[in-house]
Design goal:
single chain; 128 residues; 2 helices
């Protein structure tokens, strides 16, 4: 029998004082995050900057061996807004994710941490 997988989903909403705006830099940040949380990249990271009025900012995704990481940043609002999803079928130390976000000088960070194994069970929520 193979390894029993977990199904953990961290959803983060963060207001940022120093939002990322460079696609290459956010790709490097995602590579570092994947390494920090002990995961393995299968594809990506991919990032693109949208200059569409009202939707200006970065979108980045990385497919990891145990699922995915997706980030959207809107930098034309004040403060800038980041939505981040980290979904994994493995163990996840959410404090490592919050530590990585410090690079963007977060003003306010809210999160929900969900176990998706059988139902959508809330493990934790709060302000980081």
């Amino acid at each position: 029998m193979g390894q029993i997988l977990e199904h953990k989903h961290l959803i983060v909403r963060a207001e940022l004082n120093n939002p990322p705006q460079c696609a290459e830099a956010i790709q490097d940040w995602m590579k570092s995050l994947v390494d920090t949380i002990g995961m393995k990249i299968l594809m990506g990271p991919y990032a693109v900057y949208s200059d569409m009025v009202g939707n200006r900012g970065l979108t980045a995704v990385t497919i990891i061996e145990t699922s995915h990481i997706a980030m959207h940043v809107w930098d034309e609002v004040e403060p800038a807004l980041m939505q981040l999803d980290v979904y994994t079928c493995s163990k996840l130390n959410i404090d490592d994710v919050f530590a990585a976000l410090q690079e963007f000088d977060p003003h306010h960070v809210e999160y929900k941490y969900i176990d998706r194994e059988h139902e959508l069970t809330l493990i934790d929520k709060g302000v980081a």
